[in-house]
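Backbone-to-sequence.
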């Protein structure tokens, strides 16, 4: 069966960096667009960053643009989220998701367009 397993979360201080990883199995990784979403306490889950299946188109939420980058390594069936200059408002559970919607250059932002989800990894940023 399909599994997406996130890792790399933790407790850090404001200004620190973290790199999240999401290892996928049970699917043809290269034909899926991949994305990261997050859900803070008391808030709805929101799109953070996504990368097309082609690997050359990315979409980044304005709240993290310039601080977060997404990348993928198809040979390892893994997608990464590099998070720099972390802020307390970045505190959330971060989820990895896979989508086979649209063309190979498409990066979906809507949750319904994602077929598979990981269980999430907690990121806590202290001030």
């Amino acid at each position: 069966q399909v599994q997406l397993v996130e890792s790399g979360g933790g407790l850090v201080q404001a200004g620190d960096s973290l790199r999240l990883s999401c290892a996928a199995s049970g699917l043809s990784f290269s034909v899926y667009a991949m994305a990261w979403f997050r859900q803070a306490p008391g808030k709805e889950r929101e799109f953070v960053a996504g990368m097309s299946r082609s690997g050359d188109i990315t979409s980044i939420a304005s709240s993290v643009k310039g601080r977060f980058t997404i990348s993928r390594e198809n040979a390892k069936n893994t997608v990464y989220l590099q998070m720099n200059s972390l802020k307390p408002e970045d505190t959330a559970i971060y989820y990895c998701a896979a989508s086979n919607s649209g063309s190979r250059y498409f990066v979906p932002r809507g949750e319904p367009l994602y077929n598979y989800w990981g269980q999430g990894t907690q990121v806590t940023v202290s001030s």
